[in-house]
Amino acid sequence: MKNFGIFFNPQVANEEKIFNLLKKLHENEGIYFYRFLEQKDFVPDFFCNTDLNDSRKLDYIFVFGGDGTILRAVHFALEIDVPILGINFGKLGFLSESNLHELERSIKDLCEGKFKLQPRMLLNVQIKRDAKIIYSDLVLNDAVIYRGEVSRLINIKYSCNNRFVMETRCDGVIIATPTGSTAYNLSAGGPIISPLMEAMVVTPLNPHVLTVRPIVFSAKDILRFTITQTENESVLNLDGRKSHDLKKGDVVIIKSALRKVNFIKLNNNTFFSILRKKFHLGRK
């Protein structure tokens, strides 16, 4: 297993150092690195080209960047059904397992089979308008319904398994996976959920009623969010990378996806040790 797909954030620092290290590994260890066609103008020529129609040869995908870059690379991992290893070059890198200084060791461990796979839950998100599904996609972190550019609250009604939960006037709501619970959800006051759990957390954004609080739902539930009142088109944002306009009466349907994306785990760091290190959990 020596075929590695490489996905870069083009703005990472030390890119020349990265390329030199990968070239040395290619020449000395017989490891082949593949660049995705959308990055062929950025990555050196010693990388092989690959695309989603000709990538069955890949064993893993290395993602160089931060958590945002990993989110952009997820669709490649899903298309070709290979696991992801994040190499952190971002500000936090909560989803990353390695860094540049550990890269050679990480590759050696992979080649020797010294790793585990950690499946992460995905959300299936659909937009329903006039009784028709007009859009569908998968997300790893979260789906965010937001009021858009107009600085006025919107009304959102949500239900669980066709049973009414509540209606609230707010800036929007975040629907997050356990993986996404440490992202925007955490900033908005939502709970942290272990990534090994199967659950969805719904966290309102600036609700106009003090008693509206985040709620954790089972991954078996089907959630529906209806835009009942808005002064302008609101927005559905998926993993911070895709946005779609929503109109009054639109319904956003969210449930656990049948598929999962696998992350490579190389060390014995627990989820809680990562929280302590990167979020300073419990520090006085």
Task: Summarize the structure in short.
The chain has 284 residues and is of the alpha+beta class.
CATH class designation of the largest domain:
Mainly Beta
By CATH, the architecture of the largest domain is named Sandwich
Looking at CATH, the homologous superfamily of the largest domain is Probable inorganic polyphosphate/atp-NAD kinase, domain 2
First-last Cα distance? 45 Å
pLDDT < 50 runs, ≥5 residues: none
Number of helices: 5
The CATH topology name of the largest domain reads: Tumour Suppressor Smad4
What form results from the Cα inertia axes? elongated
Describe the structure using short key phrases.
284 residues, alpha+beta, Tumour Suppressor Smad4, 5 helices, 41% strand, elongated
